[in-house]
Automatic annotation (TrEMBL):
Protein known as: Putative translocation protein TolB
Keywords carried by this UniProt record: Cell cycle, Cell division, Periplasm, Signal
Record-linked InterPro entries: 6-blade_b-propeller_TolB-like, Tol-Pal_TolB, TolB_N, WD40
Species, as recorded: Candidatus Ichthyocystis hellenicum
Keyword Cytoplasm: no
């Protein structure tokens, strides 16, 4: 949603942005010019599992834009984890690596999965690992395998085992959902006839803060994913909105209008010890902590138009961050503190997602517009998820930090706002 609409239209019904559902199509445009070619051999013993987790590994890596995975299902191939790999054969066929493994039953429904990644160019194993596996954790372990393969070649952690959260409107109800990054394992946590907004993950992945209109006004709630319970974080006079977690999970920033103006406050995750953080006669909203928790980025019109500012907590100094363009909103900060993503309105392009290198001040556009919003960094800071609406058809997109790879997630049959990407693995029921 546009920044002005969030601040001044909180008591109006939200106009949904995108279409979303449990069915997912993924289209990739751009993509790395040189992908890592991987041969995935059949894992011995995988037939004893309820489902084959390697199907997920193939989709994870191919959808990432950095890998091209070919799978062989011929079980006659020697597939023991420590088998000697004929590097020259696989290299001559254009492969950069071979993945093989085995599954060993420990007791009913529980297994040990061994897998290895062999680099045929360096003629050495990059990964040789053992994972505990159970029938109800097949997807999670598959994503862990994908993460390890990703890291072994790219040198950064994978993101496949993280989660996304989003709000849908379907059959007259607003629903809070979580799902795997690939759109699978969709789960509905909250369903109301009144609007829901702004889901935000705690850094530990065990809680989601969000805004609920169930009391006919915006109230900030917390969903505890371990048991599915809800608690009220902020329910003061006026509106309560824009929750944002501190990196250590101990505090949450919120925007309150209890004194007649839009100010930013902090309170504990249990909803106590309310403390004013940023106050002015202008509209201050959309706060987000810096990666180290020492400062707060936020949107304000104190300079005459919506721009992004940074407030240093120790010195109480405020400095403007964005200067180019008359409308820059929705800040999101990478977990390493290097990048700031935000939404900018540009002439002839509409609303696009921008990225700024905070050390140099350089910035560039990541998306094509014209209606892009709600940027959210992946857990490894290499990708950004955002929502888009073109021609009345909504989609969720993922883009690399250079804007080279774009993945379009098409969800149908419901409408969505506010996609949010978890910063870590998630604790759920």
């Amino acid at each position: 949603m546009r920044w002005f609409g969030i601040v001044c239209g909180l008591f109006l019904l939200v106009v949904p942005l995108s279409c979303f559902s449990q069915r997912v199509d993924i289209d990739i445009s751009g993509g790395s010019k040189s992908r890592v070619n991987i041969l995935l051999l059949p894992f011995r013993g995988v037939s004893s599992l309820a489902r084959d987790p390697l199907d997920i590994v193939v989709d994870d890596l191919n959808d990432s834009g950095f890998f091209r995975v070919e799978r062989i299902k011929n079980k006659s191939i020697n597939d023991s984890v420590n088998a000697v790999v004929d590097a020259s054969v696989w290299k001559s066929r254009g492969f950069d690596a071979v993945v093989n493994g085995r599954v060993v039953a420990i007791h009913p429904g529980h297994y040990e999965l061994n897998f290895a990644v062999y680099d045929v160019n360096q003629t050495r194993y990059l990964v040789n690992n053992k994972l505990a596996l159970s029938d109800n954790k097949l997807d999670k372990v598959a994503h862990l395998i994908s993460d390890e393969i990703y890291k072994s070649f790219l040198g950064v952690n994978g993101y496949f085992n993280s989660k996304i959260a989003y709000i849908t409107k379907k059959n007259g109800n607003y629903e809070l959902h979580t799902a795997d990054v690939n759109g699978k394992n969709d789960k509905t946590w909250v369903s109301l006839s009144e609007p829901l907004l702004s889901p935000k993950w705690s850094y530990g992945g065990d809680m989601l803060a969000f805004v609920s209109f169930e009391r006919k006004k915006p109230v900030v709630k917390i969903l505890h994913l371990a048991d599915g319970t809800l608690s009220t974080l902020a329910n003061y006079d006026g509106s309560n909105s824009s929750p944002a977690w501190s990196p250590d999970g101990s505090h949450v920033l919120v925007v309150l209008t209890k004194n007649g103006v839009s100010d930013i406050y902090a309170l504990t995750a249990s909803g106590t010890d309310l403390v004013p953080v940023i106050h002015s006669s202008s509209i201050d909203t959309e706060p987000v902590y810096s990666h180290d928790g020492k400062s707060v980025f936020f949107t304000s019109d104190r300079g005459g138009s919506p721009q992004i500012y940074r407030y240093t907590l120790s010195t109480k100094r405020t400095e403007r961050v964005t200067f180019v363009g008359g409308y820059n909103v929705s800040p999101a900060v990478s977990s390493d503190g290097r990048y700031l993503a935000y939404v900018s309105r540009q002439e002839g392009r509409g609303y696009v997602v921008m990225l700024m290198d905070l050390s140099s001040g350089q910035f560039w556009s990541l998306t094509l517009g014209p209606n892009d919003e709600s940027p959210s960094f992946s857990s490894n800071d290499q990708l950004i998820m955002y929502a888009s609406n073109v021609g009345g058809k909504g989609t969720i997109h993922i883009v690399s930090l250079l804007g080279e790879e774009r993945y379009e997630y098409k969800f149908f049959d419901s409408k969505v706002i506010s996609p949010s990407w978890s910063s870590s693995s998630v604790v759920e029921q």
